[in-house]
Write a structure and sequence with these properties.
about 100 residues, mainly beta, 4-stranded antiparallel β-sheet, 9 strands, globular, Ig-like domain-containing protein, Ig-like_dom_sf
Length: about 100
């Protein structure tokens, strides 16, 4: 089953594609990460895409980092499942989308 998380961010500083994601699960395959567009100017938006396939086990978490600092986490079994961490220059839109196909 292919799943995708799409997250919108707004940046107050120049943002290059130096963002990283960590996806935790025991049955994960075909992980694909992308940032669209790959760089933006101050005040512009970008979308973070994380696409993956699960092999019968549940997703534990998806974490987004800039450098070594985490700014967003999605853990479907936590309440609330989405957590946004303060990060100067990055604002995560609370309208988060997770889809299955």
């Amino acid at each position: 089953m292919v799943q995708e998380g799409v997250h919108k961010i707004r940046t107050s500083s120049f943002l290059e594609a130096d963002l990283q994601a960590s996806v935790a699960s025991t049955g994960l395959r075909n992980l694909s990460l992308s940032i669209k567009p790959p760089w933006v100017r101050r005040g512009q938006e970008a979308q973070l895409h994380c696409q993956y396939e699960m092999e019968g086990t549940p997703l534990y978490s998806v974490k987004w980092y800039r450098g070594t600092l985490e700014f967003y986490r999605y853990s479907p079994f936590e309440n609330p499942p989405a957590k946004i961490f303060p990060f100067t220059g990055i604002k995560v839109d609370r309208m988060i989308q997770h889809t299955k196909s």
